[in-house]
Specification:
Blueprint: H1 2-38, H2 47-57, H3 63-81, H4 88-95, H5 97-100, H6 123-128, E1 140-144, H7 166-181, E2 184-187, H8 199-213, E3 219-226, E4 235-238, E5 241-244, E6 246-251, H9 257-274, E7 283-285, E8 300-307, H10 312-331
Parallel strand pairs: 1-2, 1-3, 3-8, 6-7
Antiparallel strand pairs: 4-5, 6-8
Helix pairs in contact: 7-10, 9-10
Amino acid sequence: MQLIKRDKINLRDFKIIGIVTLISIIILWIILKVYIIYFNISGNFNYAYSSILKNNYIPFWDSEYFENSKEAFIKDVKYVLGIDILNPISIIEKEVNILNSTNIDEGNLSSNMYNNSSENLNTNDRIANGIINSNNTKKRILIYHTHTTEAFKPAQNDSFYEQYNIVGVGDVLKRELEKNYNIEVIHDKTIHNTSYLESYKRSGETLDKYLSEIEDFDLILDLHRDSLDNKNLVTTDIDGKSVAKIMCVVAKNNPNYLDNEELAMDLTSLANDLYPGFARSVFYYERGSNAFNQTKSSKLALIEMGAQLNTMEEAINSAKLLSNVIGEYLAQ
């Protein structure tokens, strides 16, 4: 009788612990949700309102900083804890691994994420191994990604797998430029956004290493993808194919501002001359984070390739068209 009673007590205690744990998780989620709503972290920020505020009422208002702060909070939690605070199921998944096993397969161990080709060497190794040829007479382009894990459908917003993210799009752009225009393309795949708020600082350090070795890049591209709620704004049909639109972004807190603006305007104009509707209007920030590193070179263009609602196929189609735009631009 004593043993049976103890077993019943243990079972009851186990149930109590389970209930308390579940309640704690729910309370934590509610607190986080309230925090997010209170600080306007959830949802996409309306750039129209930010433009009105920063241009007419609050000169120092910086929508990029605002975006970075809210996205950084969410993304840093996801990186560190492996949970999405906007999705309570992910909190439970973290504790109950069997739920996590139903996620979309983002590739296998043979993914480019794990290969050791020259494309994945860090900057110092690439310079030391002679992959960067500073005496080359070809046109030379550097491609890198400040937000390296930005992804397209069918993946979630971020993915380390190149078959779903902006790095894979950069690979297509590199291949098309080399094949069709005989341009030397250096594609750096360093992951800079492990801490979202420090992304531009980290990518700036990568850029400094290349610029210390090579000063004569003909073009430097920081490839991103945008975040929008309306796919129609970032998608068009060109020659019967669905294509992610491109958009150049310029920071005004930059001594090279006019040069960077001219580059952005030239690329945008040429893109729409070759493929009407392919490029969105140049987007300006009064104060970009680290000026998007545009202080480092007047030949640096930050280009958004569609948005998170676009498919990887649409982004790849865009990269192929962009290669023609860049090829024609450098031939001028």
